Amino acid sequence: MGIINKSRVKSPWVVHFDCGSCNACDIEILACLTPIYDVERFGIVNVGNPKHADVLVVSGAVNNRNKRVLKNVYDQMPDPKAVVAIGACAATGGVFRECYNVLEGVDKVIPVDVYVPGCCPKPEAIIDGIIKAVEKMNQRVDSEKKEKKE
Amino acid sequence: MVQTLAAVILIIIAAPIVGGILSGIDRIITARMQNRVGPPILQPFYDFFKLIGKESIIVNRFQMLYVLAYLALMITSLVLFVLKQDLLMIIFIMAFGGVSLILGGLSVQSPYSRIGSHREILQMLAYEPVLIFMVVGIYLQTGSFTVQSVLDMNEPLLYSLPLIFIALLYVLTIKLRKSPFDFSTSHHGHQELIKGMLTEFSGPQLALIELAHWYELVLILGFIVLFWATNIYIGIAIALLSFVLEMFIDNISARMTWKWMIWVTWSLGIGLCIANIALLY
ipTM score of the complex? Predict the structure, then answer.
């Protein structure tokens, strides 16, 4: 199983879901695809289909209207999968935290592996967060396998 | 007998390795053309093994069957090619494989997958006549439909079938799903109809489709090698050059519509083929 574990770190396919962010985080996520940052160096591909994705990248403050959609996108992804929350709004609700319709972060709806803080975070931080999430996902798969053996 | 068996086993093992490395080179060259660094050359293999290790979400009972049929038929047509068999048979088995992938795409409810599959049918409609005309041209030149007869020729086929060769380059672009013909499903980093025909395939199924696609790539490049079969190394060089040419075409052209594709392949592609066959008479 060594080769599959190694490949998992080397080829995270990312699906990006925007829960009503102000577009600053989205622009920074898309900046990762440009020649300056070029995430394809790490095998990261931005796919549009949750069924092909390994990592769900969420930006913006989740609210009561779109939490159902977020959950749906997450459920469509095949295991093993990881979630990265980009920016302050995705982590805690950010400046919209007190709003009546806003939930306090993505982790109220789906389990989050890595929080990338900032308003908005730098592309370097986002790439780092995605790689960390995949490594974490690998460790989780390993520990689940050990538990099954025991 | 032993030699034949060895050749078959060798091609079944070697073809995906060659196909995977070629698509790795494809991704690097594409990235360099876009002023990026690009992924490592073994990236297609990382993707493949990762997909194998993923959970298999099966939408219906038949989907996996169609994927396996696609893979098996692609391997069969490549093996027939290596055994120097009938070219018509090879092309029909290849078409059969393509149809089973389309059926897999049509077997689900997703509208993206269905529209993608319909477009793939139109693609087959566009390139199959050209492939048949290629075989007819080869028949007129060698008097036989077999690959063996091409290998027995004294002069390269390219001298007598230059226009059919150009038409075959169109087929290569369609088969590799490169721009301007990438509308049934698209390549890495591009999105068309979410992922077109492949939308509902995930995990191991997608990995097997990728594997079959590598076999297909090697087979189509094999057709190009036939055009200079007197010296196999020159033939391979021509095949690799046309592969690099496809990357240029991919990066300088935008995605077009299926109507445009039908118009171009049926007028220009079939026109070139018929002109070439008329010249041979």
Answer: 0.86
